[in-house]
Each structure stands twice: as C-alpha cells, then as structure tokens.
Amino acid sequence: MVKAIVGANWGDEGKGKVTDLLAQQSDVVIRFQGGANAGHTIINDYGRFALHILPSGIFYPHVTNVIGNGVALDIAKLVDELAQVEAQGVPAPRLIVSDRAQLLMPYHILQDSYEEARLGGRAFGSTKSGIAPFYSDKYAKTGIQVCDLFDEPRLRSRLTAAVELKNVLFEHLYHQPRVDAEELMEQLLSLRERIRPFVGDTVSFIHQALKDGKTVLLEGQLGSMKDPDLGIFPMTTSSHTLAGYGCVGAGVPPAAIEDVICVTKAYSSCVGSQTEPFVSEVTGQAGDELRRRGGDRGEFGATTGRPRRVGWFDAVATKYGCMVQGATQAALTCLDVLGYLDKIPVCTGYEIDGTVTDTFPTTPALLRARPVFTTLPGWKQDIRGCSDYDALPANAKAYVDFLERHIGTPITMVSTGPKREEMTRRTSKL
C-alpha cells in the first residue's frame, strides 16, 4: 500500500519527522516533487539533520529511498548531502535516483537569483534554489534528464540548446555574464560518475514493490497553500505539493494511495514573501515570542535561515488544505510550543467585505480577509517529551479536540517535541 505524508499549510509542518517515524514500519520512501528548497528537520540517535533532497527514510537500513522523476535534482547538493549524513555516522543509505528525473542546473540557480533581484519589492520570496526556472524549462521541454548523462552526444546537444536560450536572458534581460556550455558539460560528466551507482528505473521498481505487498511512503515537500493550482497563487512553489501528484512524480498508480496523512502545526508558520496573505499572523512582541519558542530551534527556515512569519492556528486554511490533499488523517505537531500561553486564539473564520466565512477563498478575496478568532484556555505546563496522550493536561486535549472538529479530519498523532520518540497516538472523536 501507499501512504502519502504531505503538508496541510505553508510547509515546515514537520513532515520530515512524521516520515522518519513511519519509515520504521515501511519498505520504501519516495521524494516525488520539489528540490533542494526543502528542509525536513529530523532529530534521532544520529543527531540533528535538515534534509534538503534526500528522502527522510535514510536512517533505516531496511528502507529503499527513492528520488522520483518529479524531483528537481541538483546532483551537486545530493552528493554533498550524502557525504554530510555519512560523516555524522549514518550508514550509506539504500538509494535509487530515477533515470527520468530532470537536472537542476547552475544556470537555474543564477536565473532564480537574477529574477528575484529584478522584481525587487514584487519578489516572491524564493529560496533561490532554482526551482521556478527548473520547472519552467521542464514544461518548455528544454530540460535535461538523468538518462541524458549517459548519452554524451545527446547531452551535449541538449545542453548547448539550453545554454543558448539562457544566455539571451542573462545578457539582455538581466545584464549578467554568459554561461559557458563546455564548462557545464565538464561538470556534468564529473557529477555523472558520482551518481552512477544510484541511477535506476524507479518506476518499475515501485510497481514491483507494490506487487510484492511492500509499504511505500510518499514524502511531500511544502504544503497545500504552496500548490500552484490550489494554493495561494502566485505566491506558490513551482511543483505540485498535493498527494495526488505522487502518482505522476513517483510513478505510483492512483488506486494504490490508501492513506493520506496531512501534517499541520498547532500554530501557523510561513516562509516566503511578506506580501503573501497570512490571515492569522501574529506580529510584534507576541509574534517574536512565538517565533523564538517554535520548532526545535525557533521558527527559521531550514533551507534559507530566514525568520518565518508566525500566526495562530488557522482552521479555515487547514480544513481546506486537508480537503485538497484528500486527507484520511492528520498529524498535529509542535503542541508543546504553546505551553507558555494563558489563552490561545484559533482562527475559525475569515471576515471578507463584512461577511464571515469558513471557506478558503481565492487570492484576491484572501488579501481582504481579516481573522475571526475563538479563544481557548491554555494549559500553562511544559509537555515536551510526553509520549502518552492521556497524560496530557485537560486543556491541551480540549485544544486538540477543538481543532479536529474545525478541520473535519481525524487527528491521530500529536507531537510534543522535535525528537522521533516525542509523539503521542490519539483516538479521533470524529
């Protein structure tokens, strides 16, 4: 069977921890979209890790980790990350890289940076990892697949054509230096040898694994709000962040996805442009305090280091996020963070042009939305590390019950800290 672990919100919900936890009882973990702009933080017996491109199942020797065809593959970053985790004592993971995945090239990163600079105050808050230019090239059919690395005449032809287009942009739009196709060719041939042992036919592998009754985890990147179709357009990423895209980005049959676990924080956080609508945002001293206490080292981007915007739990956005993901259950993370509060607001509606709604709107209406809060009592107790849901304070459990009713998705896991073992199991009341 296939389980998808995806984000209900803006990303940074704790998907890496949930994937790491569930991988223990799984056989295959697949990254199916996005690229090195991900930052999945995992804390386990080996130490603390922020995985950017490796799947979060790498810490289990029995798990085969797959980088699917839908991933923006930065080979240099993959090689570096493999070396980093092995330097921390992690055994070399079982890894297969799809021969159909496309390469994120140095000129994609350059173009991403140049475009953000050109946009200035209208910038999208990109991680500058090259994601948007990569996917633009993929769908314009000017990209380069991993399999092209092993056909040098084809590789040279496709690279030359791509560089020709980039140099027109770099010279005449961005007024930046040209890139050298031959230099890039040499880099690719060197990197080719470093990933050669991992390259394979992942589509056939996955289908055979399913025939053999294996358990497969799809590990999503970012969250529902960042999907280019169903998210807050245009403040989105450039790959589809929904569980359904796993059928494309991993080559998984649609009927095989039986369980969709939507991950959401007990409060809200968002990395990106300051112009993005973020209805439940908390600013000032209260926002600084929540940011400082959040996550495992404060709310700062695992990829960029930028401070995340923070807010109270947004039930409107989360209900929508779970709906478009097709969530069968939800995992609530970072409940322990809220233990310092006397009262905890929850955004249960949006006021738009004088009307209150709990339906998530399109971007123009979202820009006019104002939060409608319901305030719940806090529990004023440190619950970090609690692994028994029944042992949680009554107000903490009442808070979870309240969120579950408003998002309409069973909350079955509640995290009480960043470590693997700091997780409780809960019986839904829906």
Explain the overall architecture.
- There is one protein chain.
- This protein is an alpha/beta fold and 430 residues long.
- The protein has 3 domains: 2-100 and 199-260, Adenylosuccinate Synthetase, subunit A, domain 1 (Adenylosuccinate Synthetase, Chain A, domain 1); 102-195, Adenylosuccinate Synthetase, subunit A, domain 2 (Orthogonal Bundle), CATH 1.10.300; 263-425, Adenylosuccinate Synthetase, Chain A, domain 3.
- It contains 12 helices and 20 strands.
- It has helices at 15-22, 75-87, 106-119, 131-139, 152-172, 181-195, 202-211, 246-249, 284-293, 315-325, 363-366, 394-407; strands spanning 2-7, 28-31, 40-44, 47-51, 64-67, 72-73, 94-98, 102-103, 199-200, 216-223, 257-265, 268-270, 309-311, 313-314, 329-333, 343-352, 355-357, 370-377, 411-415, 423-425.
- The strands form 5 sheets. The chain has a 10-stranded mixed beta sheet, with helices on both faces. Strands 14, 16, 17 and 18 form a 4-stranded mixed beta sheet that branches.
- Strand 19 (411-415) and strand 20 form a beta hairpin.
- The longest helix has 21 residues, at 152-172.
- The two termini are 24 Å apart.
